């Protein structure tokens, strides 16, 4: 039989304890048997192994292969600059891997956060003496004492309780504090037991003595922590796309290298020379700058999102947000303020808004009698603030406008689950008074008269029906309804709750955050579905959902936790097809079931939450979003994104940034891939047409890891366009590397750049008297000038191309240079690096370059502008076709 079903004495005996607690010897033996009262760390990969994993993913393996081939070529044919290429590629791998590892390592502190949530010290009865011991020393059978404000250190069974109320929101999501009392309880769900306290929750009122029955990982807290630790990591869409891109690039590069190695052998080229050029073709088709550009672009996006109060813990989560199709949101503290507020009152036979003048004075509401031991006035950041149960604070704030006499609290009749009410006896105005508040169905039967606008009157059947109707009207709005009554007593010993005077009703609510309705509307316009998943009451959840615009229909589907427990996975997936659905009274495991069902339906799922109960679902979702202010450390550690201002609207801003990241990656992917064609075609011409090699491998490296890098980053920093949030999420099968992108880069812009650069190369040669078939030495000045001019032509074309890539269809003049300051910096860096490579001795030595006639710069610029004009003509044609489709 569970400890909650036993009588107090049986509970003590069942746990091998007594009314004076455990003796030290028994406690020591149990500590050795059960272990410390803490959340244990699960076995995980050591840091060195996790670091090595950053250097072993598929794209990194491609770069390792390219570096190995470069070193092999240098060994076989020294002096071709292949060692510089190999070293540069290895540095790219190391820097990118170390950066990614550091980003992940800083954020993985979930277990430390779990331990911080547990109290460090606790009062324990050992050997009949009350001692203060570390919470880790607790064992089953220990007797502990707690008072208001304390956090519960382990799962406990109450033995003595005085007005205990506990906040379970970190475990259940329920915003309202629950009463707890000693004595046996009826069988039911363990979290609903009226005599149990759970680790990680907090006492908001009262004091108690309790016996520990579960510690560490055996607690409800530890069980949820275990779910968080064992929830599998979900790869982001971007990670999957980068993996797909890596495979395509590897296949394309290796295929071309192999094919042209075979062609070279058929043409009779020497084996080692042929192998060198095959390696050159492979290197030319591996965009070495892609991986660091993606990583740095995501890092810059995290900085922009941080300025918009969204802190990203995992880099791929930036782009995942942009592909989100469903947001599963908690209610308390996420959509609402987690602060109770009086909304309506019923007094004098009238239903009034709480904001109406004099509303508080219509009720005989002596709140001051209720907070004597339940609320504490503290000073935080120089401002006075009440700490305690949110409902009591709301009543105090509401009654502040009404005169409250100075009084002394004489006695209290505490709240219990059976009574569903509490009373206090106070002395003021030379008399003693009993004030009662509680559930209307508990308080109203005790009343004989009521305060009407004409004075005290008998409480007849018609008036009772009127009061009940007012109660139902408040409840229909999702308000928590309290009834208030009073009577004068002869002395403090008169504790009878009978013949009371009904004073009125108060309806309280946890109000929505004011910015949430607009944020929900933006989600709808962006095609993102928002589903409320809460542990709160279904009527409250429905009312809040309707108030914020989450549901608009007359009959939304509301699924309770008990019903969800009986559903098969197929039934749950079918239920999720409902246009408007919300989940109430949901447990931690059930929240995960909802997330998994949505993922099986092919949705990209984001989950918001702030409690310990939310952590497993936060980790299981494609992206977990935790509240930075009200959220527990556990939730923050399990999440990918933390809202620094607890503002649901910040999610929408983050989604906008995420969508921009995907579009920006496409922009700089187009930019980077474009230069692959003018890097590749020179090799094809060399092998097939027997011409001098127009571009060396080291110059390819200068483009990929030098001149292209900062402009590509500038494209990754483009600001989101407003139209992004008026479009639905992109299709699940939409690829980062799409055919239109490949066609634009490889079949249009790339060939144009190749033609321009080869035109410059051959012009430099022909002006100096070179003829087709003439041999050129690798270090001959004319050859160095021609390759330098070819290299420079590619860079100049890329300087124009960066403007063309800002949008696939809109013209360049739609975007001001000032809207992206990094773009100007990138162009200046690109031009400066180009001039340094051509004119500085160190650049000439490293990249085998030489200065050429100044007139060729004008030719390059003219050809680059021609490429720009041709691309703008293509864009105009596409816009014209699009306009005809929409307006035939």
From TrEMBL:
It holds the Pfam family Hydrolase_3. Residues 2-75 form the Cation-transporting P-type ATPase N-terminal domain. One of its GO terms (molecular function) is P-type ion transporter activity. Coiled coil: none annotated. The chain crosses the membrane at residues 55-75, 81-102, 248-269, 275-299, 745-770, 782-805, 817-840, 846-870. Keywords: ATP-binding, Cell membrane, Membrane, Nucleotide-binding, Translocase, Transmembrane, Transmembrane helix. This is Cation-transporting P-type ATPase.
């Amino acid at each position: 039989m569970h400890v909650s079903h036993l009588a107090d004495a049986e509970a003590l005996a069942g746990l091998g304890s007594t009314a004076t607690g455990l003796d030290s010897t028994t406690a020591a033996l149990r500590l050795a048997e059960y272990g410390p009262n803490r959340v244990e760390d699960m076995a995980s990969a050591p840091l060195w192994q996790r670091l090595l994993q950053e250097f072993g993913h598929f794209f990194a393996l491609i770069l390792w292969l390219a570096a190995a081939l470069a070193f092999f070529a240098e060994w076989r044919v020294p002096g071709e600059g292949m060692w510089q290429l190999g070293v540069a590629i290895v540095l790219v791998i190391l820097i990118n891997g170390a950066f990614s590892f550091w980003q992940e390592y800083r954020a993985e502190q979930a277990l430390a956060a779990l331990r911080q949530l547990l109290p460090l010290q606790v009062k324990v009865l050992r050997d009949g003496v009350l001692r203060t011991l570390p919470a880790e020393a607790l064992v089953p059978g220990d007797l502990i004492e707690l008072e208001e404000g304390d956090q519960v250190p382990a799962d406990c069974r109450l033995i003595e309780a005085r007005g205990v109320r506990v906040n379970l929101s970190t475990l259940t999501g329920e915003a309202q504090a629950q009463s707890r009392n000693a004595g046996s309880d009826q069988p039911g769900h363990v979290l609903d037991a009226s005599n149990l306290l759970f680790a990680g929750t907090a006492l908001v009122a009262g004091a108690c003595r309790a016996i520990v029955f579960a510690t560490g990982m055996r607690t409800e807290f530890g069980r949820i922590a275990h779910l968080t630790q064992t929830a599998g990591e979900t790869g982001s869409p971007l990670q999957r796309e980068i993996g797909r891109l890596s495979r395509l690039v590897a296949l394309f590069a290796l295929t071309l290298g192999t094919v042209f190695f075979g062609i070279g052998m058929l043409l009779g080229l020497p084996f080692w020379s042929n192998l060198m050029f095959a390696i050159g073709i492979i290197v030319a088709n591996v965009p070495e700058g892609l991986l660091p550009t993606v990583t740095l672009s995501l890092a810059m996006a995290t900085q922009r999102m941080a300025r918009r109060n969204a802190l990203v813990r995992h880099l791929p989560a930036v782009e995942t947000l942009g592909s989100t199709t469903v947001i599963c949101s908690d209610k308390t503290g996420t959509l609402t303020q987690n602060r109770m507020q009086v909304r309506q009152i019923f007094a004098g036979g009238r239903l009034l808004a709480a904001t109406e003048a004099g509303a508080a004075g219509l009720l005989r509401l002596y709140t001051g009698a209720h907070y004597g031991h339940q609320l504490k006035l503290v000073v935080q950041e120089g401002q006075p603030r009440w700490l305690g149960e949110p409902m009591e604070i709301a009543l105090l704030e509401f009654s502040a406008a009404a005169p409250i006499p100075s009084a002394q609290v004489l006695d209290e009749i505490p709240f219990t689950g059976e009574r569903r009410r509490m009373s206090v006896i106070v002395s003021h105005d030379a008399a003693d008074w009993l004030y009662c508040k509680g559930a209307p169905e508990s308080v109203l039967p005790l009343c004989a008269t009521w305060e009407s606008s004409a004075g005290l009157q008998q409480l007849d059947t018609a008036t009772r029906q009127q009061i009940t109707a007012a109660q139902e009207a408040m409840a229909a709005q999702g308000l928590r309804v309290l009834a208030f009554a009073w009577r004068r007593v002869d002395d403090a010993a008169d504790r009878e709750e009978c013949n009371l005077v009904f004073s009125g009703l108060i309806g309280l609510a946890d109000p929505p955050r004011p910015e949430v309705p607009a944020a929900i509307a933006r989600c709808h316009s962006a095609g993102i579905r928002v589903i409320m998943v809460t542990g709160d009451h279904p009527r409250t959840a429905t009312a809040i959902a309707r108030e914020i615009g989450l549901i608009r229909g007359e009959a939304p589907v509301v699924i309770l936790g008990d019903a969800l427990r009986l559903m098969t996975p197929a039934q749950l997936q079918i239920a999720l097809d409902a246009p408007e659905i919300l989940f109430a009274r949901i447990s931690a495991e059930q929240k995960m079931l909802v997330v998994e069902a949505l993922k099986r339906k092919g949705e990209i799922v984001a989950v918001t939450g702030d409690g310990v109960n939310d952590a497993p679902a936060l980790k299981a979702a494609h992206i977990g979003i935790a509240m930075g202010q009200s959220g527990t450390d556990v939730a923050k550690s399990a999440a990918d994104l933390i809202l620094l201002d607890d503002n649901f609207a910040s999610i929408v801003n983050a989604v906008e940034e995420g969508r921009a990241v995907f579009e920006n990656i496409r922009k700089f992917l187009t930019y980077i891939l474009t230069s692959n064609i003018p890097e590749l075609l020179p090799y094809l011409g060399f092998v097939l047409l027997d011409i001098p090699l127009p571009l060396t491998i080291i110059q390819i490296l200068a483009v990929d890891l030098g001149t292209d890098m900062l402009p590509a980053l500038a494209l990754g920093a483009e600001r989101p366009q407003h139209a992004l949030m008026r479009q639905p999420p992109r299709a699940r099968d939409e690829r980062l590397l799409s055919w239109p992108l490949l066609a634009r880069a490889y079949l249009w812009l790339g060939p144009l750049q190749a033609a321009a650069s080869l035109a410059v190369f051959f012009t430099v040669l022909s002006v100096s008297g070179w003829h087709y078939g003439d041999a050129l030495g690798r270090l001959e000045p004319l050859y160095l000038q021609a390759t330098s001019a070819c290299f420079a032509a590619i860079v100049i074309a890329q300087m124009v191309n960066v403007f063309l890539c800002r949008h696939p269809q809109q013209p360049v003049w739609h975007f001001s240079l000032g809207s992206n300051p990094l773009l100007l910096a990138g162009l200046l860096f690109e031009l400066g690096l180009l001039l340094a490579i051509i004119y500085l001795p160190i650049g000439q030595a490293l990249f085998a370059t030489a200065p050429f006639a100044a007139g060729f710069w004008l030719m390059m610029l003219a050809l680059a502008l021609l490429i720009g004009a041709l691309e703008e003509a293509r864009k105009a044609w596409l816009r014209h076709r699009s306009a005809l489709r929409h307006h035939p």
